[in-house]
Amino acid sequence: EDFAIAPDQGYCLRIRTQKTQTEATLPISYEAYELCGTPDTGKVFKGLKRSMINYPLKNWLKKAGITKPITFHGFRHSYAVIQISLGTDIYTVSKMLTHKNVSTTQIYADLVNVKKRETANKISLK
């Protein structure tokens, strides 16, 4: 089963990370759960391979006129930066990304700090 009901009555998605093959159970929003549709028995994403995702993504980007290379790994990166930008603590973001060490997640926080500095420097008081 890919979905589970958490002790706090929220929804979770069980995953196996590609890089380390470790299993993790991550909370998802009710909206994300609904978008997946009502699960039958077994895995929700049964038989899903990376190529099955990246090929349609490339076609969508081409149709939208986007020439910048974008991957699903890039979405993971964007997720981290957006969460940190919205004030989610780095420890929680680290756990959601299944990083073993929070210092790996710190890279995303450093990117956010650079953007904050750039923003602060846009206003001149002279």
TrEMBL record:
PROSITE patterns on file: TYR_RECOMBINASE
Domain Tyr recombinase: 1-121
Alphabetical keyword list: DNA recombination
Keyword Acetylation among record annotations: no
GO biological process: DNA integration; DNA recombination
Organism of this sequence: Bacteroides ovatus
Keyword Disulfide bond part of the UniProt annotation: no
GO molecular function list: DNA binding
CDD domains, per database record: INTN1_C_like (cd01185)
The protein's name in its UniProt record: Tyrosine-type recombinase/integrase
Species lineage: Bacteria, Pseudomonadati, Bacteroidota, Bacteroidia, Bacteroidales
